[in-house]
Amino acid sequence: MARRSAHSPEELRQLILAAAQSIIERDGLVGLSAREIARTIGYSPGTLYNIFENIDDVLLTLQTQMLARVIDVMNAVPKTSPPNQMIADLARAYLDFALENKLMWNLLFTHQVAAPAALVDNINCISAIVAQPVADMLPNGSHSESDVAAKALWAGVHGVTAIAVTDKGPSLNPATAHVFVNQLVSTYTRGLAK
User: Fold this and answer.
1) Would you list the DSSP string of 139-191?
2) What is the structure's pLDDT at 114?
3) This prediction's pTM
4) Which CATH number fits domain 61-193: 1.10.357.10, 1.10.760.10, 2.30.30.40, 1.10.3720.10?
5) How many CB atoms are closer than 10 A to CB 121?
């Protein structure tokens, strides 16, 4: 593999992140270690610590990147649909992303440490994407009311997604998740419309 001088610090950072993601997707979080990352990229474990503080730093960076990708997916949802349809499309995009990236998505639940500002910003961005169509359904509601309504709705969508991705629900699983999300969004938006 490459010699130490063959990669810049940014290139090493990207190699480490790609290797960590590959290991997680192959073996889950239990297979991840500095030694395994180093073996994968052909460097010593100490190289990892020249770029990242520790494995937690690597994992938080992966979580932040993953949430940035889901934000991109949600932002790609057309904004021209009626609000209730837009919310349903956003929920479907969120769920599909999670189901397509199961092991990485589970990282959000299996690895928890104090979240850096970038991770919190991404979570808030997801809420903001949902808040606009919810606010459109509550024209007489305050900003605070629509914000809470959007967060409550998305907590439900996120909960369904989390259970489906782990494939541990007796009736809620990857095969049925869309039915549950559609029902949740439909019921919630009908309530908002009243």
Assistant:
1) TTS-HHHHHHHHHHHHHHHHHHHHHHHHT--SS-STTTHHHHHHHHHHHHHHH
2) 67
3) 0.85
4) 1.10.357.10
5) 14
